[in-house]
Amino acid sequence: MKFAVIGHPISHSLSPVMHNANFSKLGLDYTYEALDIPIEDFHLIKEIITEKGLNGFNITIPHKERILPYLDEIDEQSKTVGAVNTVLIKDGKWIGYNTDGIGYVTGLRQVYDDLESAYILILGAGGASKGIANELVKFVNPKLTVANRTMSRFNDWNLDINAISLEDAESYLDAFDIIINTTPAGMVENKESVLNLKNLNTNALVSDIVYIPYKTPILEEAENKGNPIYNGLDMFVYQGAESFKIWTNQMPDIQTMKQTVLDKLKGDRSC
Ligand code: ATR
């Protein structure tokens, strides 16, 4: 079987090395490559994929929404999020899925006991936030809280959540067991921190969906305060694992996938 990840730029994607390591470990004669398709060529997607004879593909920045009109079906999670990261090609039909949210939450379940009872705050209200929120509301008992800079962003949210401002999130921060940052705020070109952590509960887990850098500014700050932190590496691994399951109906070797990515990051000195 043949797979790929499509994006632009894509040369730094760790998906090929991660998936190919899994295929090798399972003794599967499958391939996974990176395909760079710039925005101006995206209208050729059907031709490109068909010519390659792919059985499925991942789709990443900047095409996760652009792919929607080309799909024959999309799953519930993709509908909620409005974006797709996994396409299965079955009997010539293109079926879209979004495994980012389940990827993040699957990882979080491994590191946080009793997630069902946790008071959770998500920072940001974009696609990533919505995907994670949509998974968490399925089983977390306390109502989820989502904070965003722009409140109108919640207008098209139809999930049962508390929508609050970033200022309120700062004031009530000590009420939360887990804080999940999905915004790019505080990153290199954008030094302004997304949230003042002054009122952070001493036991709260602070998380970010990013894993390059391995510790984002909010994670650094939380760690310096002595709080546990959790980055986006598992999210990346588990979203890939979920894609593999969708394509092949087989269980991946998660440990191999994660170790391969970690080794690569260490080689690149990103962690
Ligand atoms: P993604 O699909 O990765 O979630 P997105 O849809 O562009 O990306 O959403 C980015 C999120 O980060 C948004 O919630 C955005 O807030 P706004 O809705 O107010 O734009 C948030 N964000 C980006 N830069 C930010 C900053 N400097 N401070 C606070 N929030 C920021």
UniProtKB/TrEMBL annotation:
* All copies of domain SDH C-terminal, residue ranges: 232-262
Active site feature: 64
Q: Where on this chain does NADP(+) bind?
A: 76, 124-128, 148-153, 209, 232
Q: Which Pfam families match?
A: SDH_C (PF18317), Shikimate_DH (PF01488), Shikimate_dh_N (PF08501)
Residue stretches making up the Quinate/shikimate 5-dehydrogenase/glutamyl-tRNA reductase domain: 110-198
The record, for CDD domains, names: NAD_bind_Shikimate_DH (cd01065)
UniProt: shikimate binding residues:
13-15, 60, 85, 100, 211, 239
Keyword Amino-acid biosynthesis on entry: yes
Top EC group: oxidoreductase
Q: In which pathway does it act?
A: Metabolic intermediate biosynthesis; chorismate biosynthesis; chorismate from D-erythrose 4-phosphate and phosphoenolpyruvate: step 4/7
Give the record's keywords alphabetically.
Answer: Amino-acid biosynthesis, Aromatic amino acid biosynthesis, NADP, Oxidoreductase
For this protein, what reaction is catalysed?
A: shikimate + NADP(+) = 3-dehydroshikimate + NADPH + H(+)
The residue ranges crossing the membrane are none
Q: What is its EC number?
A: 1.1.1.25
Which residue ranges does the record assign to the Shikimate dehydrogenase substrate binding N-terminal domain? Answer: 5-87
For whether the record's keyword set contains Oxidoreductase, the answer is: yes
Similarity section: Belongs to the shikimate dehydrogenase family.
Q: Which HAMAP family match?
A: Shikimate_DH_AroE
NCBIfam families for the chain: aroE
PANTHER family associated with the record:
BIFUNCTIONAL 3-DEHYDROQUINATE DEHYDRATASE_SHIKIMATE DEHYDROGENASE, CHLOROPLASTIC, SHIKIMATE DEHYDROGENASE
Assembly information from the UniProt record: Homodimer.
General function of this protein: Involved in the biosynthesis of the chorismate, which leads to the biosynthesis of aromatic amino acids. Catalyzes the reversible NADPH linked reduction of 3-dehydroshikimate (DHSA) to yield shikimate (SA).
Quote the protein name from its UniProt record. Shikimate dehydrogenase (NADP(+))
Give the originating organism: Staphylococcus caprae
The coding gene here is aroE
